Amino acid sequence: MTGRTLLTNGLVLSCDGDPGEKSARADVLIEGDRIVKVAQGGLDADPASTRVVDLHGATVLPGLGDAHTHISWPLDFVFDHAAIAATPPERHILDVAGVTKTFLESGYTLIIGAGVTQPFDDLLARDAIERGLITGPRIVPSGSMVAAVDGLGGDGEMMEVAGDAKGLREIVARQCDSGVRSLKLFISGDGVVPEFPSEDVYMNDEMLGAAVEEADRHGAFITVHARGSASVAMAARTGVRIIHHACFLDDEALTALEARRDDVWVCPGLHYLYAMVSGHARPWGITDEKIEASGYHREFASQVDGLRRLKAAGIRILSGGDFGHQWTHHGTYAAELQRYVELADMTPVEAIHTATRNMGPAAGLDTGEVREGMLADLVVVEGDPTEDVTVLQRHDLRRAVLKGGRFAYVNPEVYP
Ligand SMILES: [Zn+2]
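That's the Amidohydrolase family protein sequence above. Prediction below.
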């Protein structure tokens, strides 16, 4: 065996950018960790040198990605951040391994860290996955979240705290030196914590500019928690790569985003808000009164409206968002795509793009399309995700997941 694999007798959804793409009959030849050929007419391969895998009509699409991931939140997480932080590390890291396994088995081959609860969770998991000790997706690692002294998280209990541009630059440099590549800064409040409303803005242009510059020097990038429009505008004009939430968008924020259309991405976390305002968190103590007080109803409506405006303006949207609560359980990550279709006027293919072709470039990786030269990170599903995007949530329809050209997960229900 020379490391060549031919996926034959399947349908391919290439995610080439056409929002009306339909899956089409094609064979995919993989050599080493990359796709070397996608042939519509089918390919002949010498079985002596190539492993031929008959897909029996299943669909191959790029492996999915999640751009706002907390692998620190265990499978039974119930908003108890302090308890997670206090769990003995040797026990906690096994919980983390359970989460990375769940991502991979859910068809997710790439995650971008959005902050960890124990400082080295992403880095340790990434290294263990690369060494083959545990299974999981590719990880763009994050470190501890970073707050402003006067902002949400500024008490320093769960986050690092910066008082000025110099202090922030030092934190960024230190995290980058440890291997972190996706830094997470809190530059707005969050309605769920009433003392820190979503419209609040923390840090300033000088601080963010310094953070972006320092991260860039290390080949890393800055991501921000930014719910209100003023924080989004600041992030856009200072060079932040991924803006999380972006709920309230005014013209200033939209204009600033448009000016950076080629190197900024917005990751809304729509399903999380949807679940919160739909009462899904009620059994875990997030009462209707608490949701009412958070302003999340208004925020949700505004985010739906904002997503339509972002789409119309050609700003790339990334799928992802705080999965891991009991009401947005690990393993249900592709529910985000369903919300885009139901609420944000996307076709199923456009929704899939937020987890594939938009994701690779945001992470700086050759992933997210099924075409020659790309990394062979793929998911094989039954059913037609271009007609019904919810098939991507169905564990019984997921046949296999490939990462770097190798079968990283094979559904034991499908292949005994
Ligand atoms: Zn988060």
